[in-house]
Design brief:
The complex is a heterodimer of chains A (86) and B (312).
Chain A: E1 6-9, H1 19-23, E2 29-32, E3 37-40, H2 51-55, E4 61-64, H3 76-83
Antiparallel strand pairs in A: 1-4, 2-3
Chain B: E1 5-11, H1 17-23, H2 29-33, E2 36-38, E3 53-59, E4 62-64, H3 65-77, E5 78-84, H4 86-90, H5 92-95, H6 102-111, E6 129-134, E7 144-146, H7 153-165, H8 206-209, H9 225-228, H10 241-245, H11 251-262, H12 267-276, H13 289-292, H14 299-308
Parallel strand pairs in B: 1-2, 1-3, 3-5, 5-7
Antiparallel strand pairs in B: 4-6
């Protein structure tokens, strides 16, 4: 859907800790008991705070189609180095 | 042959494991050799000089004058340099030497080593140690980074192929947890356990059981062999991107957040436990300024203390 944040969970990486369910302020996630992993239930409610992405132990959650807020404390040389990781 | 990518590799201060990991690509190296012309490579070829190359893999940190010379020679001979392995990217295990003076290190290794006799320091044909250990990007310009201790051969294979084909590598910035098969479950555990306390459950996450595992703050370039085989992650591939990039996020606070969510252990207790544990949580990455400049990291204080002890 246009204008909606696209949230992807890498299923093989999800360890089923439910931390994303707990931290999400808008209840975007649900838990699939059968498969023991988190699923995206209400992507339209996502406010792209990225709390889930930061807390996810596996770094398995990725967001697309959102306005990235540029942090003022990041310096350019440092960010360039980050782009070079293979 | 002319269209092949010419590859040089060199080996500075490290254990040699990264180069062995190249050999561990096994038969698939034949696929690479269709596109790569292997020139200088200390484990596979007998080329002593630095022939002109398109790509250079440099493993190891800068610890001696010879390391600095080799790194500069690699930079001059190669169009693109990949910092290869945790030592080259972050300083690695040799980097932990920065918290001791050179005299202390030499004295422990030679002067008062309990397992040797003679106790004489090597004098001839050995380069002297530099004051501090530095990752290679503080000495030469580095084009790409491939951390890992060593990087799993699958990552090396794909990274080389990606560079040759000019595409992004398949490697993501997921953590060791992403490859670990243990289940992260909520538990009633109320205290942090030392690694030697009891026997850990084989299928449940170490954090759920109260053991401090650095899997969730460590980049996956390893396929998680340690936690999958009953050993907690010690963070050998270096910290995740968010620990590196966010000044207020730190290994101890991130582990504290997650462990507190999984168990009944207060976040503060986890953080204090990690801080008490000989500061080994940054053992592989403490030499890099990416970590050294973090406000949450105290390496500058330690180095200042070394300098106060008196250096030439």
């Amino acid at each position: 859907m246009e204008g909606m944040v696209d949230i992807q969970i890498h299923e093989a990486a999800c360890r089923g800790c439910r931390m994303c369910l707990d931290i999400c302020p808008t209840d975007v996630f649900a838990f699939d008991e059968g498969r023991g992993m988190a699923t995206v239930q209400a992507a339209e409610d996502c406010i792209a705070c990225l709390s889930c992405a930061y807390l996810c132990p596996s770094n398995a959650i990725s967001h697309h189609q959102f306005h990235a807020v540029k942090n003022f404390y990041r310096d350019i040389s440092f960010c360039r180095r980050m782009e070079r990781f293979l | 042959m002319g269209s092949k990518v010419r590859l040089n590799t060199d080996w500075l201060s490290d254990c040699g494991g990264c180069h062995i990991a190249i050999v561990d690509i096994h038969e698939r190296i034949l696929e690479l050799l269709g596109a790569i012309e292997l020139q200088r490579c200390p484990v596979l070829t007998d080329i002593k000089g630095y022939p002109d190359a398109d790509l250079g893999l440099v493993s190891g940190a800068i610890r001696t004058e010879h390391d600095r010379h080799s790194a500069e020679a690699m930079r001059k001979s190669c169009k693109r340099i990949i910092a290869f392995g945790t030592c080259a990217v972050y300083g690695g295990v040799p980097g932990a030497g920065s918290v001791h003076t050179r005299e202390q290190i030499l004295d422990y290794a030679y002067g008062h080593n309990p397992t040797t006799e003679g106790h004489t320091l090597p004098a001839d044909g050995v380069d002297s140690l530099e004051k501090l250990v530095t990752p290679i990007d503080e000495v030469i310009e580095v084009d790409l980074y491939l951390p890992g201790c060593p990087p799993h051969p699958a990552f090396i294979f794909d990274a080389l192929l990606a560079v040759i084909e000019g595409r992004p590598p398949k490697a993501k910035d997921e953590t060791v947890c992403a490859r670990c098969h243990r289940r992260m479950e909520r538990t009633e555990v109320s205290h942090v356990l030392a690694n030697h306390d009891g026997i850990a459950n084989r299928t449940q996450c170490f954090l759920s059981q109260g053991y401090v595992c650095l899997g969730s703050v460590t980049l996956d370039r390893c396929m998680a062999p340690c936690p999958n085989n009953g050993v907690v992650c010690t963070g050998c591939a270096g910290p995740t991107m968010q620990v590196l990039t966010e000044p207020n996020r730190d290994i101890r606070t991130e582990v504290g957040d997650r462990m507190a969510a999984l168990t009944k252990i207060p976040r503060k207790e986890v953080i204090e436990s990690i801080e008490r544990a000989a500061k080994t949580h940054y053992a592989y990455a403490m030499a890099t300024e990416m970590i050294g400049k973090k406000p949450t990291f105290l390496i500058e204080k330690w180095v200042a203390a070394i300098e106060e002890e008196g250096q030439p």
